[in-house]
Model the fold of this input.
Amino acid sequence: MERILIKDLGKHVGEVVSIKGWVSVRRDQGKMVFFDFRDRSGVVQGVVLPKSPAIETAKDVRVESAVAIEGKVNARPEKNVNAKVQNGAIELEVTGIRVLGRAEALPFDISVDGYNLDLTTELDHRALTLRHPRLQAIFKVQAVIIDSFREYMKSQDFFEFQAPAITPATAEGGAEVFQIDYFDKRAYLTQSPQLYKQIVMTAFERVFSVNKVFRAEPSATTRHITEIVSLDAEMGFIDSWRDVRDMSENTVRYILQEVGKKCAKELEFLGATLPTMLDSTPTLSLTEAQEKIFAATGRDVRGHKDLNPEDERELYEIIKKETGSDFVYVYGYPTRQKPFYVYPNPENPEFNEGMDLLCRGVEWLSGGRRINDYKQLLEHLRIWNMEPKKVEMFLEAFRYGVPPEGGFALGAERMTMQILGLKNIREATLFPRDMNRIDHRLSDVEAPDGQ
Amino acid sequence: MERILIKDLGKHVGEVVSIKGWVSVRRDQGKMVFFDFRDRSGVVQGVVLPKSPAIETAKDVRVESAVAIEGKVNARPEKNVNAKVQNGAIELEVTGIRVLGRAEALPFDISVDGYNLDLTTELDHRALTLRHPRLQAIFKVQAVIIDSFREYMKSQDFFEFQAPAITPATAEGGAEVFQIDYFDKRAYLTQSPQLYKQIVMTAFERVFSVNKVFRAEPSATTRHITEIVSLDAEMGFIDSWRDVRDMSENTVRYILQEVGKKCAKELEFLGATLPTMLDSTPTLSLTEAQEKIFAATGRDVRGHKDLNPEDERELYEIIKKETGSDFVYVYGYPTRQKPFYVYPNPENPEFNEGMDLLCRGVEWLSGGRRINDYKQLLEHLRIWNMEPKKVEMFLEAFRYGVPPEGGFALGAERMTMQILGLKNIREATLFPRDMNRIDHRLSDVEAPDGQ
Done:
């Protein structure tokens, strides 16, 4: 008999059908056994009656076993209909159970309601805990975030390229870069596709990439992982950094809209509310943001070189109260505090045309306009005390006619974490790597709390 | 004036418009100057007449400069219409040229017809040569291959996950794995997401991933690069390995169809013909394939443990002649020659249910059914002399009810190379890494031919 997906069972009331999936719940009520079965499409309740040929197997089969089920789709009596759950109007009267993959006894409860693990245990058992609907909901949302980024970029004529992971000695970073034994030489894992996306932009005009970046920060906070999914974009022929701001705003707006549409059930299950993005997100220079914080709180951070986490939280609260927006753009950072390629404001070169988008007080996105003039790049390399030799390929691209350009980058895990209100970025990472863990803990010593 | 994309100029005949792009060609004919301009959407011819206010700039501007152009869209006189090229019925009468990014003199000719570089020089100047339409066509085809893979997977209910690049000490590989300094420990770059995709499959049933894999083979052939884009899929609840075969065949068929549709111009420009895939691709066991080679050529490779490149070429020629198919599936390899997780044929356990898809004599795809029974996996680990500890997370997934399952993987660069008939995989890789090159050559010593 051909397999039917669980989500389609409602179309087969009165018929004998075959489904395949996992046993989520088994409740042995003596004479009868009740089940919840799940497959990739959903969940359905099943019952094995005392006279069913499947009753012996039903008494024996363990939770999380993979099974093939035969049974009749019955409409539930009116009083048992549950409109709130999938397939709440039907029940499968099971006549056959075939075990396709046996399960051992579970080390802990992974039922929807019974699941209650600390994060360390959850990660120690990632292979099993991934079956829980909470974790499935998180990674479904993440898949939609990443795919919506690509969809929007394609709709705007951006060309997708594959950014490299292995890099030669680079001008960027230092201590926070992972080194690789590369045959008899040394190579490094990329910290950012920044220079590559700028190179590819000079040929394809508008480019994007979904790629891995690597950070060797020796830090074990709730925000640090070593391998990150970066969503990167770069565009040429802009009139000003505001074109980049607008493109990034529309990208984030589209992602939120698609998550809202495609993950309504998941958001509800996780108790998450999408952040509010206005038609036009409030946009302040760093100086204006600092003035605002001073005016509202009396705390004087005017003239500081950046916003610290406390500033970011306060700015969020001020903007939220004033406008209702969960988002705020901050632009115009001190030029010397940022990388060499960020474009200085021609009217006030002490400040640049870099920008960050904060959501609920946390940075989601950063970007801005870049320098497109070869001589200005050389001059910046000199001031930043960097060897042109180390960015030779990048510099070559800029010798030959590069228009005004800019771009932005988003971290997929951080966005997932923030949208869903998760407390630790590891919850938003399928196989999180940090200084203490790659799949398993790297030592037998107990890792710090929250690892 | 608002920028118009070059592909839309035909809709603006008789109007004064603004375009932005690069100077592809400049032909100074004394009184007049002719140009080809290009942007991300296409190419148009421009002419600067003697009395144009732009004539001075036109005499001065270099090829590959980034420019903003103002001009009037004129219909060409009938005799000058060229129906074969984009915008062959119009010409832009240029009245203004603004240089947005100056180009230095080019180190070599990168015009459509004049381009003629050996691959080493091409790669040494990747940042510039990427502007050539030949290279743009190659990477457009590659982007469509990768995106079509994702599209088909999504249409078949596969869940996209992010496979990790950093792995702990693994059971796979040995000498051909890149080592990373991971804080005070050692970690490795993944050779394959195989075990991770199987883990994620046990939770999501059907999964796919577009991810980087890394191969440290100390080899400098035309087929070896160290960083590869791998297209991976895995599916549960199969009835036999033939379900995996069929899914992989439909995936490849969809990719070819989309490349045909979306890259017709690129294929023509590159002189490439898509390989022929029949409604049902010829499918032979290894033993049958060896018999066929013996029967057709008299060369006796019966009983050999695998097909070598010569066998693969001959098999291709035989099948092509017999059926017209450029593709052939070969399945049923000696169990002990393949990884521990490949499913042995229950009726003849000396041979497995692994498979390869060859196109024009080269392997494109490999996959097959995997072992889903925990005890059988443990038994194989013992026979393969591998430590269960090193695949602990993988094994945990298989303790708890895994249905019959299988999957497959494709290399994006190899597919691109084969479809386009390229001679070296580096031509099909945006930033190829090999033992002698990461962007630039790793030594000043001349690399072997073809590097």
Notes: Residues 128-281+325-441 of chain B form a domain with the BirA Bifunctional Protein; domain 2 fold (CATH 3.30.930.10). The CA atoms of residues 246 and 280 of chain B lie 9 Å apart.
